[in-house]
Amino acid sequence: MSGYRRHERELFESVAALRRAASRAERIQRDGAATRVSRGLLALRERYPELQANPLFSDLHGRLWALEEKLAASRSFYNGVCREWNNLVQGFPTMLVAKLFGHRALPFFAIETRPGTNR
After folding, report:
1. Which of 44, 49, 67, 72 is the most buried (most CB within 10 A)?
2. Cβ(15)–Cβ(34) under 8 Å?
3. What is the pLDDT of residues 10-47, one digit of tens each?
4. How many other CB atoms are there within 10 angstroms of residue 43's CB atom?
5. pLDDT tens, 49-82?
6. Which stretch of DSSP H or E encloses residue 79?
7. Cα–Cα distance, 93 to 59 (Å, whole number)
8. In whole angstroms, what is the distance from residue 82 CA to residue 105 CA?
9. Segments making up each domain of the chain, as ranges
10. Which is nearest to 8 in space by CA: 39, 41, 33, 37?
């Protein structure tokens, strides 16, 4: 069981390190990597069926799954706001005012998935 704990701790530390970033572009890039790492933790349940019997791991798995769902909803909301902003910044006549004040288009959050999977 200590091997699981060590692996779990390494995953959490790498997720925390990836989510710390200075700029918005860095945060967007690192968020994709952090999501892939946390999905690796979710995949532990498939690789080690005996973990399913552990109530602590089951609770952790449920909470992590719920967190990933909330993050996905937040990304979707952010992307919707960015789409509206970008339409304003790039559309005429608002683009003239946007350029005057130095407003630029915002990047979208995009999570890379493996072809043929949802992960």
Report:
1. 44
2. yes
3. 777 776 776 666 677 777 777 777 777 777 777 777 77
4. 11
5. 777 777 877 787 788 888 888 988 998 999 999 9
6. helix 55-90
7. 52
8. 8
9. 2-77
10. 41
